[in-house]
Amino acid sequence: MAPWLPLLSLLGLLPGAAPALPRRAAGAQAWEAESSELLAPARFALEMYNRGRAAGTRAALGAVRGRVRREGRGSLYSLQATLEEACNDPTVCQLPVSKKTLLCSFQVLEELGKHTLLRRDCRPVDTKITGAGSPQMLQSSGSNFIQGSALISLFQSYPDEKSENFRSFSPLFNKDTLPEDFVMQVASIFKEFVITYNRTYETKEEAQWRMSVFINNMMRAQKIQALDRGTARYGVTKFSDLTEEEFRTIYLNPLLKELRSKRMPLAMSVNGPAPPEWDWRNKGAVTKVKDQGMCGSCWAFSVTGNVEGQWFLKRGDLLSLSEQELVDCDKLDKACLGGLPSNAYSAIKTLGGLETEDDYGYNGHLQTCNFSAEKAKVYINDSVELSQNEQKLAAWLAKNGPISIAINAFGMQFYRHGISHPLRPLCSPWLIDHAVLLVGYGNRSDIPFWAIKNSWGTDWGEEGYYYLHRGSGACGVNIMASSAVVN
Ligand SMILES: *[C@@H]1O[C@H](CO)[C@@H](O)[C@H](O)[C@H]1NC(C)=O
Ligand SMILES: *[C@@H]1O[C@H](CO)[C@@H](O)[C@H](O)[C@H]1NC(C)=O
Ligand SMILES: *[C@@H]1O[C@H](CO)[C@@H](O)[C@H](O)[C@H]1NC(C)=O
Ligand SMILES: *[C@@H]1O[C@H](CO)[C@@H](O)[C@H](O)[C@H]1NC(C)=O
Asked: Model pTM?
């Protein structure tokens, strides 16, 4: 079978012929070599680079190129910059004084004028960085959006592609074997994506770059699909124009894998077997699916979801609770840079409760804590850690309510529907990076699943829900289960 045929089968994921590209993407100008918009984030990245360096040894900014992706109030800048490092202070310089040029990739998130450096990768220019393509990156490319040759040159100069999937598929993008039809079809699915998810790209160059990321992602999705042992379908999602790195830095939660959870008392286990299936959504214990936006605050959503359920079961009142309060006021955690449910429970106790979503609404970025104890509608008395045995977890859930868990989010960038069951080595239980909420379980055609409430909006997954294989410790679903206790 020709190597692109399996990929073509993915095209079925989006029906219909695509209308023309939105004007903005097609008609806009390419970035200037130094667009003024890139300077602020580039200077911020430089400042972070120079932080802690002695005067006289600080680097200066050379050329800057980059892309910007906007969503809501945030802009994510992916920059490539040259830094000139020259030592001007003879008391600290090594002799002979040398000048060094570095090529750096930065990712800078800007929200409301505030910058955060998400990633930095600098190497001396004289070592080979990305192979033959790299020098082209610093030149302007004004190639035509849909033309096959433009697409090929994009792939040849793909700047920070390190993924092995890409390498293993790269023969596909050999100029001699890439069929014209294929390029046209991929371009049309990309257009469909742009329309479905209301994407706007500022420039033609940005649109080209996003299309190359999109195509690469379709191949990643296809590979994940081929290796899935469940019924899940992977393909185009609203995250299909983000690189893996961008997706991780924005939506996932590195703290979860770095920190050990603070020990909490073990919950009393429930006697007797779990009912064959259970779903708290049809029992009124679960609020609607929320959206964390461009902020790694999944831990806050996981915890409010659990407390919402606990409060409902103890007090009979389903209140949508404030994640923003946790983002702003829980100083044990790191707001949009990640956190742990165990810390969040402590913070809720210390603060004196949670306000409602209505009283303390979600902004998706860190702001000054504005919690007021008089407005807290809900309190918790304690928190507990749950068993790692999935049958016991099911029994506890059916009796006591939705459970805060954390999982390895492997494949979720491209998850569309069905029961996900990745191979264990691909979805290690030890690389947990996303907190979510277990709300139910059951079987679909004899495949046991957990129903998981996510916080990426209803336009992801099955109306915002994720289904994961149950009974095999899939993706670490059982290893960080916890709950608040309301007396
Ligand atoms: C699409 O995005 C634009 C600008 O970001 C916004 O004004 C518009 O309301 C969005 N439309 C939909 C249907 O989401
Ligand atoms: C803080 O909350 C009070 C109401 O509790 C509100 O009036 C005030 O505007 C809020 N302050 C900020 C900075 O959001
Ligand atoms: C639970 O916490 C609330 C609020 O802090 C407190 O008023 C209540 O007495 C506590 N209940 C128990 C049984 O400790
Ligand atoms: C669910 O599927 C599993 C595996 O096929 C099977 O062992 C179990 O009995 C099923 N449970 C129900 C309630 O059908």
From this structure: 0.72
